Each structure stands twice: as C-alpha cells, then as structure tokens.
Amino acid sequence: MKKINLLFCFIATILLFTIVSPKCFAQQINSDSEVIIYTQKEVKGDYTYITVLTKRVNPDNNLNGTRQMISGSKTTYAIDESGNNAWSITVNATFSYNGSIATCVGAYPTTAVYASGWSVTGSSCSISTNSATAYGSAEKRVMGFVVKTDSRSVSIQCDSNGNIS
Fold it and tell me: Fewer CB under 10 Å: which end of the chain, C or N?
C-alpha cells in the first residue's frame, strides 16, 4: 500500500510540474508589475515625509517601434509628531519617450487619509512637458476645530530614455 501511495504522489508531482511550467510564473511576474525605485525621508517641522517612487513595468509597451510608454507614481506620506501616518498625496503619470524626447501624456492626483481626525481639503495636478506635479492639502480636526494643517506637492518626471525620477 505504501508503494502505491508513493507512486501516486510521484506521478501527481510530475503532472503538476508539467501542467504549471516555470514560463507561466515568469509571465505573471514580468507582466504589468510595479517596481519600487526608491524611498526618501525628509523631516520638516512637526512632520516626517516619506516619498516612494514606483514605476509600472509592462514588457509590451513598444508603440509602432518608435515610441515607448511608461507609467509611474510618486507618493509622499505625511507622518505626524506622534509617528502616525496622517495622510498621503500621490502623482500618477504616464509618459511617452523615444530616446530623444519624453512627454507626459496624462497625470492625475490621488490622496488617502490614514489617521483619525484628518481629512483632505484639496488636491490638483499639473502637467509640464516631461513632468507632472500633484498638490494636496489636509487638516486635522478635534471637536470640530482645525488643530493642524498640512500641504504638500510631489513631482514625477521622465527622461528621454524612460527613466522616471
């Protein structure tokens, strides 16, 4: 009986590796995934700001063999003096590049609130030739009174070779 169970396990293992090939895993990992490029920390007044730059990798981004597209986002998290993540502002952008020029083809801001009492009071986004900037402001209220305000901008840009910073 042990030999039959062992033989069954062996055959099941071989079938599993035959059906689910390593190529499938490679495609899942490489297709449309995000890569964190860097993080940066800045202390300013009562806040610590952590900025994270992320780019979206898509291996099928070649358009007609002349232009390529790349997307990225840059998020700044505002950490208050108590060490709580209060809120964040993100600029999300898509760039076209061809080796001699890069152009921002679209961008939008996103915001998030993480701590009690905080709310986002505004956000906007602007686009320049090869960059985009998101602007955001937030406030903290206690018993209906504003006790803290914060505003921040975060920018992302792309060079002619598709390098996002």
Answer: N
The predicted model scores a pTM of: 0.75
E strands, the chain, where? 33-44, 47-57, 62-63, 67-79, 85-97, 102-113, 118-128, 131-142, 145-157
pLDDT mean by block of 10 residues, the chain; 165 residues: 46 38 32 69 87 76 70 92 90 92 94 94 94 96 93 94 91
What are the structure tokens assigned to 32, written together?
């449309």
Helix (H) or strand (E) holding 26: helix 22-30
Question: Residue written as tokens 């090939």?
Answer: 21
List, in order of start, the domains of the chain with CATH numbers: 1-30 (no CATH), 33-157 (2.60.40)
Separation of alpha carbons 53 and 37, rounded Å: 6
